[in-house]
User: What shape does this take?
Amino acid sequence: MKERHQIRIIIFGLFIFLTFTLLVTRLYQLQIVQGDYFRLWADRNRFRLVPLNASRGIIYDREGNILLRNIPSFTVTLIPAYLPDDPQAEAAVYQRLSELLGLPATKADAEDILQKLGISRGDAGTGGLSIEEMVDEVRAIAPYRPLILKRNVDREAIFQIEEEHLDLPGVLVEADSLRQYPYGELIAHLLGYIGPVPAEQVEAYEAKGYDVNEDQVGLIGAEAAFEELLRGHKGEKYIEVDVAGREVRTVSENPPIPGKSLRLTVDIALQEQMTQALQQGLERAGAEIGVVIAMNPQNGAILGMVSLPAYDNNLFSGGISVADYRRLSEDPHHPLINHAISGRHPPGSTFKIVPAAAALEEGVISRQTRIKCNGTMWLPDERFPDDPELGQTFYCWIHKLDRGHGELNIISGIANSCDIFFYWVGGGFLDKFSGLGLDRLARYARLFGLGEPTGIELSGENPGLVPTAKWKRLNYSERWVTGDTYNMSIGQGYVLATPLQMVNATAAVANGGTLYQPQILYHVLDDTGHVVQNFTPQVIRQLPIDPLHLATVAEGMEAAVAWGSARLAYLEAVRVAGKTGTAEFFDPNIPPDDEGNLPTHAWFTAFAPVEEPEIALVVFLYNGGEGSETAVPIAAEILRYYFGE
Assistant: This one.
């Protein structure tokens, strides 16, 4: 009996020894052999490297008024690794976050919401994802990386999240900044907005050091054009966190470098007056789309740029809703498009400054040349000149009054905007008069900056169109005829231009022949407010045209205001030069009138004072009627404000 008892003691002792040996061995393996490995993982759970976003630069107008600023905001993030292991507890976290943030908790919830809005999953993009789906996308890839659930969360929700933080493991509240645009629609097209990195540009932004999952970038307007100046450089801090992923202390910190601030060339007070004048002019004309641009003709600085209808870029701060974006993108008048640089249209008679200057320079006409306008002219067919049925009648706008302009020189031709005068100048007439012809007309149009982007910093600029015989043959399988040259000479037919191109061409006449690159950046400021980069005029080209010939064109434009087609732009104390334009166009949604006439765009370009030009203007009304009746009064109101009348 005693021996059996001793055997049990020995066996029990051996068991304790073996157990202790195993524990020591395992402890040795964990602490000594694999100690560094587990220490690293423990530190990874306890310490995190957190990026510190740099504040984006502020944007001011030329007088120092704030056009764009940063305001405090809160962002709610979620670290997937700290979510509960229990699926039901995890689902409870999703559900509570859904209630607090207004986001769908599950995929089924998201589909129900989109179905009610009438939006497909594909159209909604990442904006249609639920909290569950967002977590599932990153859980296996970066479980310890904060996932942004929502930006610009209201304070009440933030207070509730902080109060319930023990029941919301992994949910963090981060102080952030939000872009605020105090003037909203007034200058939205110039400023633009920021948003997530576009999917098609992910690689390009990653190469520049962006975190494409979190960073906001300029998507359009000045925000996009000057992204590299505005963005600044991120900092970082090394922090210790608790078991819920919340910060306990900061171990070390490398502060961020804020972005540069900008002063633009625009004057917000002038911008406001321009907008008001354009809105009232659109109402009088019964039109919906319009543009006004003001430029300094001596250096290319944009003083104001208005495109209506506009949009409130504050809608994009913190992420625009699917419903708001759908409303803006489906608007038939395209408020998201800057029509000042993206809309290309037949320029009508504003284009006549090009053949006028070209004809004088090429010796096609002189100041003394006189051409008679009878209101109509008949052009025989080039192949069958003796067959009157194959010929074509061309009209001057004044033919509606059953009369012509009579004999005109270049001054009165511009002042009265006589079409027949410019038919002859551009296309000639049989063997009686040799006009410029297509090649020279197209070459001078390109010299004035048409048919190519002006180079303004804003994205989305349309190059317009300067047609050629080859272009027509490739696009219409037809040869170029004299009638095409006639139409082009008065800004009709195939020639297309943007409002920005036309004001730039007008500015080149005003300043004596320098075509500048339009610019909106005036000064770059560092974080202390000191100017680190000044405005520098950029010359595209010096026009190969005698300044005396350009002065003659300007004289004709001044006559248009003094006694010609633009008399409504006349100012008592300031000499104004201008050129009206009325351009027919085709739009399937706008039928011809009762007499079969196509609808017309209204144009007007101007500069003042004639002797020392300070401002060049263009006014454009889509489907605005007669330029002399609808566009000129808008410009006159803006000029009166600018010169204090």
Observations:
- The first helix runs from residue 2 to 33.
- The longest strand covers residues 66-78.
- The chain has a mean pLDDT of 88.
